[in-house]
Amino acid sequence: MRFSAFVSVLRSVGPVVIGISLGFTLSLLSVNWTEEACYPDGKEGEDATVRHDAQLKGARKPNSISTINDVESEEDFEPRIVPYKQVQQSPPKKVFRAKYISTELGMRERLFVGVLTSRSTINTLGVAVNRTISHHLDAVIFFTGMRNRKVPHGMFVVSHGDERLVWNMFKNIKYIFDHYINEYDWFYFVQDDAYTEADRIKALVGHLSMDRELYMGSPEEFIGGEMEGKYCYGGFGYILSRTLLLRLQPYLENCRNDILSARPDEWLGRCIIDYTNTNCVSENQGLQYNHYELGKNSDPSKEQSEQLKKALTVHPVSDPEQMYKLHRYFTELELQKTYDEIAKLQAEIKNVSVVAFDGNRSAQWPVGINPPFEPKSRFEVLKWEYFTEEEIYSCVDGSPKCELQGIDRMDVADVIEVAMAELNKKYKPVLHLKKQQLINGYRRFDPVRGMEYTLDLQLEVVNQKGHSRSITKRVHLVRPLSRIEIIPMPYVTEATRIHIIIPLTLQDRSNVDHFLEVFASNAFETSENAILTFLFIYDPVEAQQVNQNDIFAGVKAQINTYERKYPTVKIPWISVKTEVPSQIKFMDIISKKHPVDSLFFLANVNSNVNSEFLNRCRMNSINNWQVFFPIHFQDFNPDVAYPNQQRPATVDLITDAGHFDRRSFEEACFYNSDYMTTRTRMVADVQENEEILETLDIFDMFLKYSGLHVFRAVEPALHQQYSYQACNPRLSEDIYHRCVQSNLEGLGSRSQLAMLLFEQEQGNST
């Protein structure tokens, strides 16, 4: 009872007590607890107050109240006008931004490779080393004392101008400090008479800690045994960490002056041991630097040593042929290892699929390859192509049947060969199968898994007793998509100036007005970094009458009009006389009038040139690397595409409006230096047959003589109006045929031409 009475009282009184307590607490929190000193003299009190206020630095007192003195001070306050002074702004500091994000973030590449070669071996062993490792590694530089006048193609060679080996080693390390010490974590040096298994070296440094002071290779005692420690023998190569080189950097000059040695690897070893106290090791963190000493005139394919199979480097290599044999030997080892890993993974997948919900059905064929693409609608169904050994029934030009040739023929032959090899592998030694003929062949490209094939083969089967019979066997094959590889490309920008070359003949004059109008709006008014140049082509008769009747007088007047309209624009023009208009002859003249580093765009007067395409021309044309031949979109003949209709103002990129003209090779983007180099290479052929200049075009010239990447792709930003081309029969048969085909295919689509024929036949019948 007492407890229940206490609870009832607490319920009624509790909120009041809590409210009073909360009020007292808040009031105490707002009280200023700063102590103020009491002085008998008011003046001292004022000084103390000033000092106290200064300590508070203008902070408001929660309980402060204005006093009489404060009011008087406010009344005595007189405003003062402060004159305005303009703040002198210092010029903004230019912020330096690195060209690449990796540079700004301090990211480094993993491995740098330096190959030590000489003038006498760079064209033999040096080339062999470059061919066997350069496509596996990011940076390979060849160091030599003296070099020949001509450097092998595709090799980056640094020569020091001296044949002293120790001096060259000093210069090699100094070159690393000057150019690459901040770009790589590991530095690998090897002689050109050693074979390096590039992938294994990459894997080794990929598992090493980059902050270690590591000197790794094949340890050797110093000659004489007087010096303690071990150096890395240069024949088998050695790895140096960036951390070790940075510690060695301040003492490199001391090593050059104080250490005497006849061997560069021994000199470097003494330098590292003396100033960093780091010895050569062949093992670190459980990883071994395996090497193998090759016997004289030994054949790697006949070697059975386990040490050779594990080796990272093999030394000595006597000649390039032995280097290539070693490369083949290690490539076959890695290939077999890959096949074994694939078979192991396939077996594991089969074992796991047994306990899956769908059982063995969950393991798609081939095991480990992505399942086939499943279309979600009839528009996504993948098309099968039918072929035989001689013909294919799906052609690029839309024909129902065409001859199987080129890469397609090689593809079909390869697939049949693989099918027969796999069948014999499966049924031997009980049966032996021989191909009689391919009855049916089907293939399709599956974007998820690769190229799929279905073959119906007529085979002759021979058993162990020699009896044979003919059977038909259906086989399925898949050529899977391999791992995507990013190909490194040189750095290019969109700031390069383009020289646009427009050749003009008598028949092209009527199209100049439209071309200049479009080009002015896309380039002149936007200050595009491009120079337009016209090439006036006269035949001999027109050239004789140029003073009395210049066929290009109207065009020259239009050029003057645009130059007056745009004062900052100059449109140069060049006149040439020729009987046979040849691209190469024209470019010979233009090339001599421009700097070597000029970027050309050889265009057509019917093309609509805009900034979007010009930027792609800049990006796809790479000096000493690649030339670009765009495939423009050409309108169909308006009379065919729009019969009894008004032609639209703008034409969309649709199948009924036009097509990408794959027969045209007129437009091209390339650098003048690449043109001059390619032109020099065909001098010998021109001396034997001068007509080659008229029978070849720029595309064929680059394809045959340059050695550059010839990049050809559809270009939606390059639009060309319909025009009938006058095909010159004096050009090569191939060029003339391409011109005729371009005219025929540019008339209209198949459905439009069929409709015209249908209407014509109906009209004739009535």
Keywords:
extended, 25 helices, 766 residues, transmembrane helix, glucuronosyl-N-acetylgalactosaminyl-proteoglycan 4-beta-N-acetylgalactosaminyltransferase activity, CS_glycosyltransferase
Commentary on this structure:
38% of the residues lie in helices and 20% in strands. It contains 25 helices and 28 strands. The strands form eight sheets. It has a six-stranded mixed β-sheet. The relative contact order is 0.04. Its EC number is 2.4.1.-. It is a single-pass type II membrane protein.
Amount of helix: 25-40%
Strand tally, please?
A: 28
Described by its quaternary structure, the protein is single chain
| Rg over alpha carbons | 41 Å
Number of helices: 25
Q: How would you describe the shape?
A: extended
Q: Indicate the proportion of strand residues.
A: 15-25%
Estimated structural class: alpha/beta
The profile of the biggest β sheet is: 6 strands, mixed
* Sequence stretches where pLDDT stays below 50 over 5 or more residues: 34-73
Mean pLDDT: 84
Subcellular location: Golgi apparatus, Golgi stack membrane
Transmembrane segments: 12-33
EC number: 2.4.1.-
GO molecular function: glucuronosyl-N-acetylgalactosaminyl-proteoglycan 4-beta-N-acetylgalactosaminyltransferase activity
